[in-house]
Structure formats: structure tokens, C-alpha cells
Write a structure and sequence with these properties.
heterodimer; A: 358 residues; alpha/beta; five-stranded parallel sheet; 5 strands; 51% helix; globular; B: 468 residues; mainly alpha; 2 domains; 18 helices; 71% helix; 0% strand
Chain lengths: 358, 468
């Protein structure tokens, strides 16, 4: 290769490039097979891997799950209503729908004997990634071929220009390449032994760990925050409350669901059905109508859908006293929400299987 | 855009394909110049004008020097070139250093001062391209060659992207003639270039970037680590800086080779040097020869008394240290090397009668040289002289209260690197891949590339020499 006469060498060059690529992929496949993903799993993933069999209900979602679904209150309520559960909060801060898809499939692949239900938070796909997370393991991990294709489709929104759009799409494919070629996988296996840093970046979880994080516990309580901050948060909540309660459905300017979002949501449902695990989709208490998801539920495309984004149906969840900010509930709001989830869950179980009610 | 990033692969692929698709030499050079400026603009487009200015100054200075009839006029033009280049370098790189040093000195004297609030961005590669550009006008002044009248050629010589930001510092006498010849792809030793690129990539990502976390931890808080760990960090840093810089040089040379240009090697197994003078003939060769030819010889070189020669060496190395960074720790590092070079001269003179050395001493020289070089890197890496001194004291006399030891895996890794370095030196110049058939070489390259990628951390640290 590449020091021969030029006559007719282009096909030969292309063949050599192809052989090099095939050899590289085979190497990745063979060496990569010896390296399991398990060896580098952080936090909740490794906790669930080790103790996941205890849970029959797992909540999967973003920070709207992490900070708002309290398994302790959920389980207490379901037990009171005669259908005791042992649940786990698998919410991840900053998660995207693609990561939720990845997490759901990861949980299903564990084939936990006791797992009966997955409660999955609904969200529209946002394909943009923050600059600081571009090489983050969490971001790269979900870049399978299917999810990368879906993330490349978008939607990007009108405010995203062509250059940023192209850069984002290229970046997704770069991340796909990093995952496919297992770039850094061997380095990661040796990382802690070379750096000597054996501190687990994630805290050691006790046996009672349920995955929930209270915003009140992790940051100063709103009452203790500077008045100006709380005033701004309060005003924003009130503004959004007015917007959502005063806008008629026909006036809503929400775009239709993208192909990628629909595909991911329905894909999650199919994956659960295939494994015989029940699935519930949840619209969290957001200041968005998300009628498109509601319509999917009405049309029967989504089997079980709980909606908590109606401030008239769930006024407590939109009361500023129960909110941390416009995006999340505080601990009091999380308690209300978790109980409401539990009630809806038990009601759904009773409707589906009246014989299971106590 | 780092050489190890995916977007560089895309950039280079485009540059490479278009370059060889073009037939006319002038078009190829224009394309490469555009790529080079685009490469630089990818970091900060505002400083593209600075390279262009530096280029124009020395292009005109070269022509004016050559056209001048009197020595005084020639000297005037070369002085203009010197002042302009060093002025640009001095302002962007050393303004803050000089102001801070002056402020501290005045405060020490008890005089009132006010702190400058001017924060100046250091343009990437300024130390390299100003030296490169300067060498041209000095060589024209010395009558080494005629200046080029082709601005495109000169601009490409200064701004050629493979070596623009971190060397090797290329001499006009070796590069400009290559631009006048129409290169053919048939003459490119692609196998050697690809192998060299992979070796450079391995050195940078698998060696330098993998030991960097431990080195950073120790240098950030040396007192937390015991004696063995601090020494291990020093050895690991020696591996890091060599892997980082020689890796970059390898990749730069191979990229240039794939485009049909030959650049001189920049490293020649420096850690196997038998003495400190030999080390500087093997480490960052393009800089050490630049300092020798344009600074040491200008000061008088080896002419004069031994004290004078020692003084010349000291000035050269101190300024060489300062070139690396605007900090007293770099000056001190240069000072240490200046002292050692001067001492070695005296040693060579006084031990002339004892040579040839007995075989057992043949090992002592390289070991002692490496130990000194690695030790001196403490000041190169430390954030300031005080930190460097504190660490150096521990390294020499012990007494660390830290409890954290070196990771056993790292010790094994460093030992493995040393063995690999020795083996590579033993087989240098050999090209076993030439014996492979085409498809065999392609397959081997694919396997090696995959393994290197898997051994590379996902997030690459910036090249150390980018900060210079």
C-alpha cells in the first residue's frame, strides 16, 4: 500500500482503506467484548445493578423525576391503598428523551425478576447538548445508531441556526463514533489505577437509598434564599401559571410532536411490552400543555398515561408554595405529587385487574 | 483544533484531497495557505492578522536587507525585523510578566505602585512563528541565501499549519526550496507517514494524557504525597512532556510528509542522552539549534575564555527558559540547564585524559543526565519558583509528611514506557512494515489504530507546548 505505481491504484487504495476499517472494527469488537460496560457504570446504574432486584416499580426520567418523585411517599400511599410497592427513582439531572430511552432499555436488559412496572416521564426530545457535556460518558453512552439517527433528525427549533444545527448533528455522529469505536474504554479501565484517585465520585448508597433527591436538602430552602431570587422565581411561576390557565387549547402554539419524539416514546412502550413489564407514561407538572402527548393517550397509542400538567386538576402542584422554581417542585410539592402518582397508579391497576384490588 | 481531535481528521482529509487534486503548484500553495490561516482562525480569527503582519514585515525586511548596498543599511533592516518580531512577542507574551515583576520589585523596595489591569491574550504559536520568521531575516543578513521574492512562498513558510502552533521551527533554507518544486504523490512515503502519525498519537493520548491526572494531583498538592509518590510524579511528568511534545512533533512531521514536505525530526531519544550537551542535541532539536545559531553564536559562541563560553551558555539557556514561558520558574529551569551545560564543558575539558570511559560508566552518564533533566522539570511544571523549590527540597532531602503513595499501576506503566523507549531506540531506523504486503499493512494499521483509540482518554488535554 501507498508506495506503488499510480496506474490503477485508486481501487487498490480504496480496498486498503476498507481493510483497515474492517480490521479496526473487528479489533474493537473483540477487545470490547472483554470490557463490559458494567465496569465503568456510575452511581445509580451500579446501585441498581447490585440491588435492583428489590424494586418492582422504577421511575425513569429527568430532573423532573429525580427531584419530584419520592419513592418513600409513593410506596406508603400504595401500601395504604392496598397495593404495596417497592419503588426506585431513576431520574437523572439533565436527561434527554434519548437518555431515558437508553435507561429504560438498560433496566429491561437487567431482567430483574421482581420488576413489574416502569413509570416513564414524558418529554419532547431536545437534541442540543451543552458544550461541557460533549465528551461526557453519560452523553456518549446513549448514542446507539438508532438514537443517533433520531437525535440528528431533531427537532431543533426555529431559533437554532443552520450552522449550530449542522454542528450539533456532526457532534452526535462524532459521539456515535466514540461509542462505536469504544474510544477511551481501555483507558477508563486503567484510569483510577493510573491516577491513584480511587474516590468514588458518587456517594456510597446505603440499603435504604431510593434514588430521590430533595431540592430542599441539596440547596438552601427558598425561604432562606435572598428575597430577590425567590421573588424572581415566584414571578416566573405566576407568569407561567397565568399563561397556561388563560390560553385556550385552540390558541396553543405548541408544535406537533416530532417524528423522533414519537418514535422514542412508542419504542419504549414496545420494549416494555416485549419484556412483559408494564409501562406508565407520565406528563409531569410542567407549565406546558403538551396536548400532543395527551392526544396520543386519547387515541390509545400510549397505553397508560398520567397527566399532571393541568393546574385546575392539580392546583397544589402549581401553587408557588409547593414549587422550587418554574421547572421543579420543592419537597412539599414532591410529597403531594408522589401521593397523587401513587393514587393514579393504584387506580390504574384496579381498572386493569380488578381482582388485584384488596 | 488539536491533531488528536476528530474535526482535525476531517479538516486534514479535505486539505489533503484538494491539495493533491490540484495540478498547478501555485494553486496548491495558495490552497495550503488558505487552510493554514483557516486552521489558525479556528482558534482565534482575530490573530490571523498578526501572523500576516509578522510575515509581511520579514518578507519586506529580507528583500530590503538583500537590496541594501552598505553594511549599515543591512544592519538597520535586520534590526527592524528583530525589533518588530521581538516587540510583538514581548508585548503579547511578556508584558504581564514584566509588569508583575516590576511591581513586585518596587513593592520590595518599599515604593508605591499601581497594578496594571491590562490582560493580554497570548496568541497561539507566537513563540514559534516569530522565531521562524526571524531566522529567515537573520539568515538573509548573514548571506546564507537570497530572499524569496514570492510572497506566497514566504507566507506559507511562516504559516504552514502542521508546524504553525508548536513547531518544529523550520529553517527557510530547508523549506523554501521544497515550495519551488512540484511535488508528486508518488514520492510520498505514505506508510512511514501514517506509522509516524500513529506513534505520535499514541505518545500524546495513551502516554501523556493517561499519566497527566496523577501528575496534576501531585503538583497541585505535593505535601499530601510521600517521597516515592513525588518522585513518581516527576518521572511521570518527564514521560508526559516527552509524550506530549514529541507526539505533537511526530504528528506535525507526518502531516507535512503526507502533503509532500519534509520536516526535520525534532526529537531523537533525548532520555538516552549520555550527557547534558547530548541531551540538547536530542531534545526539541529545532529550538536548540535555533538558540545555538542565532543566540549562542551571536554572543560569541565557543570563542573566548572558558568563563566567557560558560557565560554565553548561561545567557542562551536562561533566555531559552524564558522563551518557554513568562514566569520565573521557567527562567530558573533555563538557569539550571545553563549551569549544567557550563559545568559539563569544564568536566569534558578536565577529564579528557580519562577517556574512553570504562563500560560501567557508559550507563552512569545517561542515568545521571535523565535524573537531572527529570528533576529540572519540577520547575518547568510547578506554578512558581517557591512551589518548585519546596518540591525540589523534598525530592532531594526527603521529609515529606504526605501519606499518599504512588499507584502501583503507574509505577509499572512508567517502567514499561522506559523499556519501550529503550527498545525503540535500539531499532530506530528500521522499517519492519515495509516487508508487509499491502493488505497486511492496512490490516495492521487498522488494528493498531483501534487499540490506540481505545487506550486514549476521551477528553484530550491541550498540548503542553501550546502555552508557549
Amino acid at each position: 500500500m501507498w508506495r506503488s505505481s499510480r496506474a490503477g491504484s485508486l481501487p487498490s487504495d480504496l480496498l486498503n482503506v476498507g481493510v483497515a476499517l474492517v480490521a479496526a472494527m473487528l479489533t474493537v469488537h473483540v477487545v470490547g467484548a472483554a470490557l463490559t460496560e458494567e465496569s465503568s457504570l456510575p452511581g445509580k446504574f451500579s446501585y441498581l445493578r447490585d440491588r435492583g432486584d428489590r424494586f418492582d416499580v422504577i421511575f425513569v426520567g429527568t430532573s423532573r423525576t429525580l427531584y419530584q418523585v419520592d419513592p418513600t411517599h409513593f410506596d406508603r400511599r400504595t401500601a395504604l391503598l392496598g397495593l404495596p410497592t417497592r419503588s426506585f427513582n431513576f431520574g437523572l439531572v439533565g436527561g434527554k428523551l434519548t437518555e431515558v430511552d437508553y435507561t429504560v432499555r438498560w433496566v429491561l436488559d437487567r431482567e430483574s425478576e421482581n420488576l413489574e412496572w416502569l413509570v416513564v416521564e414524558l418529554n419532547r426530545l431536545n437534541p442540543l447538548t451543552a458544550e461541557k457535556n460533549r465528551n461526557n460518558d453519560r452523553v456518549i453512552r446513549w448514542h446507539s445508531l438508532r438514537r443517533t439517527l433520531l437525535a440528528s433528525i431533531g427537532p431543533f427549533g426555529e431559533h437554532i441556526g443552520a450552522i449550530e444545527r449542522s454542528q450539533t448533528i456532526l457532534d452526535h455522529w462524532r459521539q456515535f463514533g466514540l461509542r462505536a469505536l469504544r474510544v477511551g474504554s481501555l483507558a477508563r479501565a486503567f484510569e483510577s489505577s493510573l491516577s491513584g484517585n480511587t474516590t468514588d465520585p458518587f456517594p456510597v448508597y446505603g440499603s435504604e437509598y431510593d434514588g430521590f433527591v430533595s431540592l430542599d436538602a441539596s440547596r438552601p430552602h427558598p425561604a432562606k434564599r435572598r428575597n430577590r431570587e425567590w421573588k424572581q422565581a415566584f414571578e416566573e411561576i405566576a407568569k407561567n401559571h397565568r399563561r397556561i390557565t388563560e390560553t385556550k387549547p385552540s390558541e396553543s402554539d405548541e408544535p406537533p410532536l416530532s417524528f423522533a419524539t414519537r418514535n422514542l416514546v412508542l419504542g419504549i412502550q414496545r420494549a416494555c411490552a416485549k419484556r412483559g413489564v408494564g409501562i406508565v407514561f407520565v406528563i409531569p407538572p410542567v407549565f406546558e400543555r403538551w396536548d400532543a402527548f395527551t392526544k396520543m393517550g386519547e387515541r390509545g397509542e400510549i397505553e397508560n398515561l398520567f397527566s399532571f400538567n393541568d393546574p385546575f386538576a392539580h392546583p397544589g402542584l402549581f401553587n408557588p408554595r409547593n414549587r422550587w422554581n418554574v421547572g421543579h417542585l420543592n419537597a412539599r410539592g414532591a410529597k403531594i405529587y408522589s401521593r397523587a402518582l401513587a393514587e393514579a397508579f393504584v387506580e390504574m391497576r384496579r381498572v386493569r385487574s380488578p381482582s388485584q384490588s384488596s | 483544533m488539536l491533531f488528536v481531535e476528530f474535526r482535525f481528521a476531517v479538516f486534514f482529509a479535505v486539505a489533503f484531497l484538494v491539495h493533491w487534486a490540484l495540478r498547478r503548484n501555485a494553486l496548491r500553495k495558495a490552497w495550503l495557505l488558505a487552510c493554514s490561516y483557516a486552521f489558525y482562525a479556528g482558534w482565534d480569527w482575530r490573530f490571523v492578522g498578526l501572523i500576516a503582519l509578522s510575515t509581511l514585515i520579514d518578507y519586506l525586511a529580507g528583500l530590503c536587507i538583500y537590496a541594501s548596498r552598505t553594511q549599515a543599511a543591512r544592519r538597520r533592516w535586520v534590526t527592524i525585523s528583530l525589533v518588530a518580531n521581538l516587540g510583538i512577542l514581548g508585548f503579547f507574551k511578556y508584558f504581564g510578566f514584566f509588569v508583575d515583576s516590576a511591581t513586585h520589585f518596587l513593592l520590595w523596595l518599599g515604593l508605591p505602585t499601581s497594578q496594571s489591569s491590562l490582560e493580554i491574550i497570548l496568541p497561539l504559536g507566537i513563540s514559534f512563528y516569530t522565531f521562524q520568521s526571524l531566522s529567515y531575516s537573520i539568515d538573509v543578513y548573514r548571506g546564507r541565501f537570497e530572499p524569496t521574492r514570492n510572497l506566497l512562498d514566504f507566507a506559507l513558510y511562516v504559516g504552514f499549519f502542521p508546524q504553525l502552533v508548536a513547531g518544529p521551527i523550520v529553517r527557510a533554507a530547508s523549506f523554501l526550496p521544497q515550495l519551488r518544486v512540484v511535488r508528486r504523490f508518488e514520492d510520498v512515503d505514505v506508510r512511514a507517514a501514517l506509522v509516524l502519525f500513529l506513534i505520535g498519537f499514541f505518545k500524546k493520548t495513551c502516554v501523556a494524557d493517561n499519566v497527566a491526572p496523577f501528575v496534576d494531583r501531585v503538583f497541585e498538592n505535593p505535601s499530601a504525597f510521600d517521597f516515592a509518590a513525588q518522585w513518581m510524579a516527576v518521572l511521570a511528568y518527564a514521560a508526559q512532556v516527552y509524550g506530549d511534545f514529541s507526539g505533537y512533533s511526530d504528528m506535525a512531521i507526518s502531516c507535512a510528509a503526507l502533503l509532500g514536505f519534509k520536516l526535520s525530526p525534532n526529537f531523537r531519544f533525548p532520555y538516552l542522552a549520555s550527557n547534558i550537551s547530548d541531551f540538547w542535541r536530542r531534545w526539541h532539536i529545532s529550538l536548540s539549534t535555533w538558540l545555538r545559531d542565532y543566540l549562542f553564536f551571536s554572543l560569541g559562541g565557543n570563542r573566548g575564555t572558558r568563563a566567557r563560553v560558560g557565560w554565553n551558555l548561561m545567557i542562551t539557556m536562561v533566555l531559552g527558559g524564558l522563551w518557554h514561558g513568562a514566569g520565573w520558574n521557567f527562567v530558573f529551569w533555563g538557569f539550571l540547564h545553563g549551569i549544567s551545560l557550563a559545568v559539563h564543558r569544564v568536566w569534558q575539558y578536565r577529564t579528557k585524559a580519562w577517556r574512553p570511559w570504562p563500560p560501567i560508566l557508559a550507563w552512569l552518564g545517561p542515568l545521571a543526565t535523565f535524573a537531572f533533566v527529570a528533576f529540572s522539570f519540577v520547575f518547568f511544571r510547578a506554578s512558581d519558583v517557591e512551589t518548585g523549590m519546596a518540591m525540589a527540597r523534598t525530592l532531594l532531602f526527603g521529609g515529606s509528611t504526605g501519606e499518599l503513595g504512588p499507584p502501583p499501576a503507574l509505577s509499572a506503566f512508567v517502567a514499561l514506557l522506559a523499556a519501550a523507549h529503550l527498545t525503540a531506540a535500539k531499532f530506530q531506523g528500521e522499517r519492519p512494515w515495509d516487508r508487509l504486503p499491502s493488505l497486511g499493512f492496512a490490516a495492521l494499521l487498522g488494528v493498531a489504530s483501534a487499540l490506540v483509540l481505545m487506550l486514549s482518554p476521551r477528553e484530550s488535554t491541550p498540548f503542553i507546548y501550546f502555552q508557549f
